[in-house]
Structure formats: structure tokens, C-alpha cells
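Please fill in the sequence for the structure shown.

STRUCTURE ENCODING:
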């Protein structure tokens, strides 16, 4: 029997108390920030990550790691929003994830959809 990714993600009732609201809020905000910063670069509003780092008063590394969250697999982003990610999967674990979606699942020990 082949398991789908959704089999490994938690249902809403299973996730109560597992994926804490603070962790979830931080991850959702970071994903949104990464997408916003990527949009700024693509639109030409800023020319490089150094400009974002200077404006946000953070390191270039932090900007790059946050932008990497914009490339999170859609099912993983949706699970984060719905609070269905397994315990231990938050910003720190996802911010340096590979861009390839199948490798993201593998890195997290989840089956690819």
C-alpha cells in the first residue's frame, strides 16, 4: 500500500497541541515574509538581498534563508497554515530546505505526494 504525503501530515484533531500556535504563527509569518521579499526582488523593487538585509536590519543569510521558505512545497505550506505539520517542523527546520519539493519531503522524513 502506497502512502501519500497527507497520510503523514496530521489531521486537525490529531494536531491539537502538537504544532503550537506560536510555532505555527512564526512559520506562517516567515513564509509570507519570504514570499514578499522574493516578490520585491522579482519586481525589481530591490536589486539584491543586501538591500533587504539593510532595511530589515538583519543578516544577508537570514534574508536568504527566509526567501527559501517561498519555495516550500504547496502541500507543506498548506499543512503549516492549518497546523498539521508534525512536531519539530518549524522555521528552523524548513528555512534551509532544498528547493526541489520531493527533496523537502525526504529531508523531513515524509513520503512525497
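FILLED IN BY: designer on duty
SEQUENCE:
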Amino acid at each position: 500500500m502506497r502512502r501519500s504525503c497527507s497520510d503523514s501530515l496530521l489531521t486537525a484533531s490529531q494536531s491539537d497541541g502538537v504544532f503550537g500556535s506560536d510555532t505555527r504563527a512564526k512559520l506562517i509569518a516567515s513564509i509570507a515574509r519570504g514570499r514578499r521579499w522574493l516578490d520585491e526582488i522579482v519586481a525589481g523593487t530591490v536589486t539584491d538581498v543586501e538591500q533587504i538585509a539593510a532595511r530589515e536590519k538583519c543578516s544577508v543569510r537570514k534574508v536568504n534563508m527566509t526567501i527559501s521558505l517561498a519555495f516550500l512545497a504547496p502541500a507543506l505550506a498548506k499543512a503549516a497554515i492549518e497546523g498539521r505539520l508534525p512536531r519539530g517542523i518549524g522555521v528552523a527546520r524548513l528555512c534551509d530546505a532544498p528547493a526541489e519539493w520531493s527533496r523537502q519531503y525526504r529531508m523531513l522524513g515524509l513520503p512525497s505526494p
